[in-house]
Amino acid sequence: IVALMSFLQMDFEKIMKIRIDDVDLANKHLTYWDFGESKSVTIDMPKSSSYYKQLANTVAGETLATFLTKRFQRIGPSTAEKFAEFANLKPEKRIGAFSTDELVQLSDSLQRYEDFLTPDPSCLAPLGEEPLRKGIDQFFKPDFFDVIQRSASAYSGFPFVVEMGIAYGGNIPSGKINVYRFANRIPLLYDEGSDVVLQVVNETDWGRYKLKNDSPVVIVSHICSTRIPYKTVGKENVADRPEIEKELRLALQFLLRKLSAYMSKRGLAEAEKKRSNLYHKYLPLIAQFATELAGKTKEPDYKKLIKDLSTNVEAKE
Question: Which helix (H) or strand (E) holds 31?
Fold first, then answer.
């Protein structure tokens, strides 16, 4: 108001009797309605005037560099400069002066640029790996289980964290792979068929990880976000946003690699145990027959060999 009073050379009493109707920065015109005179007045705004400069800065907005550093998390001047170079835009140019093509270019570049730091997850409340680990162990008593909490990511500007756990064997029944879904610590009980978690699970090649579709496996997923992209107002299934789907897939692949390593180790242990049982069964007979064929009375000491085999089996288990 002070700048306007100075520009129009009016005191406070008079400035309260006018109404600004239009500001044409391109043609440097200002139009106002004077209630005292009951008429519309249009005046020129010299480009050198401080009021014109103030209006121009307000309308044009911040520079690209300032826009990035002030409006986005974890973007400093250096990152803003690198992004501007990547997007082929001038960091000192004001956002309001961007053409339509430049705005589209800015939007596309924000989606494609991969060197932004992950968003700050301090506003989120994930379960945490340890509580998830304890819960899976307590409820399923599995032979194997593991959990992972992915780094924070974002979709459409909303930060989110994916947590996932997997369990095998124990009290888990065979027949199908069971999936338990949670979003912001709330269980999702219905419409699981159209959920992004089930989509990721169903698209997984289980044979690649030495598993079958009817293996005794439980998958627990938790998506924590400031805004969960539910498909319906019932909030029972999560939409397949590419960013969330990617994080879920990476989490599941990590856990399946761990489970696959366990299955391989267990398979080797079972094979070794089977081999040891064969030795336990046939070595005494071989020792007896060999002694008789050799015409000896004392059998060879095969018990030490059996003991060594048993020790190897226990170590691998």
Answer: strand 29-34
Give whole-number Cα distances, 246 to 83, 138, 150, 212, 304, in Å.
23, 29, 11, 23, 54
**For the CA atoms of 154, 106, 53, 6, what is the dihedral angle to 10 degrees?**
-40
pLDDT digits (tens, 9 = 90+) for 42-56: 888 777 777 767 766
Pair 150, 183 in one domain: yes
CA atoms within 13 A on the CB side of 220: 26
CATH number, residue 80:
1.10.8.50
CB distance 209 to 256 below 8 Å? yes
> How do residues 268-282 score in pLDDT, each as one tens digit?
556 666 766 666 776
Maximum CA extent, the chain: 137
> Do 47 and 28 meet the contact criterion of CB atoms below 8 Å apart?
yes
Question: Edge to edge, what strands does the sheet with 29-34 contain?
Answer: 18-24, 29-34, 39-44
What is the token pair recorded at 307? 């003991």
Closest CA to 218 of 235, 201, 199: 201
Pairwise CA distance, residues 2 & 12, whole Å: 9
Segments forming the whole domain that contains residue 107: 64-112
Q: Do 44 and 149 lie in a common domain?
A: no
Which residues lie across from 19 on neighbouring strands?
33
Give the global pTM: 0.60
- Alpha helices for 34-155 (secondary structure H): 50-60, 64-71, 77-87, 100-112, 129-140
Total number of domains in the chain: 4
